[in-house]
Amino acid sequence: MEAMDLKAIGAGLAAIGMIGAGIGVGNIWASLIATVGRNPAAKSSVELYGWIGFAVTEAIALFALVVALIVLFG
Amino acid sequence: MASPVEQFRIQELVPLKLSENIDISLTNSALMMVIGVFVALLFFWIATARRTVVPGRLQSCAEILYEFIANMIRDNVGKEGMRYFPYVFTLFVFVFLGNFIGMVPYSFTYTSHIVVTGALALTVFAVVTVIGFARHGAGYLRMFFPKGAPIATAPILIPIELISYLSRPFSLAVRLFANMTVGHIMLKVLAGFVVSLGALGAASWGLGYLGAFAAFSMVAGITVLEFFIAALQAYVFTILTCIYLNDAINMH
């Protein structure tokens, strides 16, 4: 196999890391929706933590992406 | 067709080399930063030139922006945090304008380079650490060991807390840079689909046109999403700065 083929495979493998972040972000919104559903008055105070949690979890997916980009172009 | 990462190439506009290793040429990235700063300056200058008790349209915008950041600091850091308001406000405006200038076609997103976001994040890290040590002295080292934890857990807890503290600037920089880069790559790739499917249109009994239309709708939808992400990432960058400031000022 050529080096470029192996690079493509490596980048694809690195992208598997995004599964975890997908589950995490899904969890955050699921519990946020459940919270607001149970207690709509809490919406304004809970929303902020939802966005922060989303951003922090999403960063993990982006680390996987950076690894994939380094494998491809680095 | 140009590769999707072509748009992030840095071009020298005014070459200026001081010596072999010192290159302070004006690049397209630097030009966009200067434009961003001037847009901010001009906006706040015009908005606050004629101040009235009942604010007009522009003055309201400036006041809403001010209140937004001021409330963010009051809620997350407390009254003492207002001393650092100018820094946090500048950070927000700079990142926000960087993300939005990047959404203008044929412009350049300076926040899509890890050099820029890395410098911003390292400054935040340095500022927060200096504030922490200045306020608490050596007591700031207690950051790395939560109160009330059994002393036997120290060998495990301290390295974990240390790593999580040191990885802050890294995650802050990578989050902003990767979000911007990925958004623009995605737009470029989808726009490429429009061209290549449209070229197949006549040869495939119109099926290509259908595909091109679908891709074009995707581009339109994702552009809206990118505007949202641009605002959200500026917000997240500032609120995480506030949270780090809070850790340094009122130790947990």
TrEMBL record, chain A:
InterPro entries: ATP_synth_F0_csu, ATP_synth_F0_csu_DDCD_BS, ATP_synth_F0_csu_sf, ATPase_proteolipid_c-like_dom, F/V-ATP_Csub_sf
Known role: Key component of the F(0) channel; it plays a direct role in translocation across the membrane. A homomeric c-ring of between 10-14 subunits forms the central stalk rotor element with the F(1) delta and epsilon subunits. F(1)F(0) ATP synthase produces ATP from ADP in the presence of a proton or sodium gradient. F-type ATPases consist of two structural domains, F(1) containing the extramembraneous catalytic core and F(0) containing the membrane proton channel, linked together by a central stalk and a peripheral stalk. During catalysis, ATP synthesis in the catalytic domain of F(1) is coupled via a rotary mechanism of the central stalk subunits to proton translocation.
Protein name (database record): ATP synthase subunit c
Membrane topology, from the record: Multi-pass membrane protein
Presence of keyword Translocase: no
UniProt GO molecular function: lipid binding; proton-transporting ATP synthase activity, rotational mechanism
Gene name of this polypeptide: atpE
Organism, scientific name: Phaeovibrio sulfidiphilus
Residues annotated as domain V-ATPase proteolipid subunit C-like: 9-70
Family per similarity comment: Belongs to the ATPase C chain family.
GO cellular component: plasma membrane; proton-transporting ATP synthase complex; proton-transporting two-sector ATPase complex, proton-transporting domain
Keyword terms: ATP synthesis, Cell membrane, CF(0), Hydrogen ion transport, Ion transport, Lipid-binding, Membrane, Transmembrane, Transmembrane helix, Transport
TrEMBL record, chain B:
Subcellular location: Cell membrane; Membrane
InterPro entries cross-referenced by the UniProt entry: ATP_synth_F0_asu, ATP_synth_F0_asu_AS, ATP_synth_F0_asu_bact/mt, F0_ATP_A_sf
Coiled coil: none
Primary localisation category: membrane
Keyword Transmembrane found: yes
Keywords: ATP synthesis, Cell membrane, CF(0), Hydrogen ion transport, Ion transport, Membrane, Transmembrane, Transmembrane helix, Transport
Keyword hit for Transmembrane: yes
Transmembrane segments: 26-47, 84-108, 114-134, 185-207, 213-246
Membrane-protein topology: Multi-pass membrane protein
Gene Ontology MF annotations: proton-transporting ATP synthase activity, rotational mechanism
Superkingdom as given in the UniProt entry: Bacteria
SUPFAM superfamilies given in the database record: F1F0 ATP synthase subunit A
Residues annotated as signal peptide: none
One Gene Ontology CC term in the entry: proton-transporting ATP synthase complex
Annotated family: Belongs to the ATPase A chain family.
Function: Key component of the proton channel; it plays a direct role in the translocation of protons across the membrane.
PANTHER family assigned: ATP SYNTHASE SUBUNIT A
Descriptive protein name: ATP synthase subunit a
